[in-house]
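It is worth pausing here to work through a concrete case rather than discussing structure prediction in the abstract. The textbook approach is simple: state the sequence, then state the predicted structure, then interpret. We follow exactly that order.
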Amino acid sequence: MKPKVLVTREVFDDVLAYLAGFFEVASNQADLPMDRETLVRNLAGMSGVMTTLVDRVDADLLAVCPTLKAVCNIAVGFNNIDLAACARAGVMVTNTPGVLDDSTADFTWALILATARRVVESDAHLRAGQWQGWYLKQFLGTDVHHATLGILGMGRIGRKVARRAAGFDMTVLYHNARQASAEVERACNATFVSKEALLAQADILCLHVPYTPETHHIIGRPELAMMKPGAILINAARGGVVDDAALVKALAGGPLAGAGLDVFENEPALNPALVALANVVLTPHIASSSAATRHGMAMLAAHNLVAALTTGKPPNLLNPEYRQT
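Step two, the predicted structure:
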């Protein structure tokens, strides 16, 4: 008898076909969000599950899902999963790194340009029938070329964002928990600085850090106050790394000129004050959402799940200390 697995949200048909070659698959192709009770009910008897970032897997869930052996997240982030609890329960956890790096970097630049040049604001003005003709000071924005780009978090995505800055002749500064190698710095034409210097010097500050207890509100009221007047903040990383309430104040009364946000605290809810601000570009957590990339993420999660339940050695294992049973 084949092991049983659950796919918690809609995925591509060929991904399901691939899984069906190894497992008895229960899939949520109706794409109906599962509350906690529904998720637990659907996990009954399952050996593995492909989750998304909205599916919380913790000790309480594991306690009532004793057959579960693998949780494969369709995301690079995994703050929705308690790795330690999974390790104690003998459950392997995987993510989908690498496959989404370029698409996320591309989208970061979409946010940079849309925010700096007031694309969304001017689009809404035009669609509302308010344009009365050209004039000199209409929708004055911020130049991206020759500006200073600051990157907080110089991992895979941060490096790709930095390399794209070369086409705009930008000065690139970065701060990271550990300084990158000289080779990486040369490839990205980037200079390591302190966090304080980064905040003070960046015309455009991009965040590319994971969400952890250490990075919670890594950009809060004190950090926003240190930023250059007229600067722009871009967050395509994770909600919670920015204090959204403090950001609203920094956008409404200075020092920031604008922000481009793809992620939010408590999403899909967001601070309603952000919606009221004209100098904010808001998108619904879609930085990786190209057809090719989302397909690649789902297929990589499926490969992880197959490897986990057939060999016990998935390629993107996050908790190698898990207790095998």
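Step three, interpretation. Residues 291-310 form the longest helix (20 residues). Residues 114 and 120 are 6 Å apart (CA to CA).
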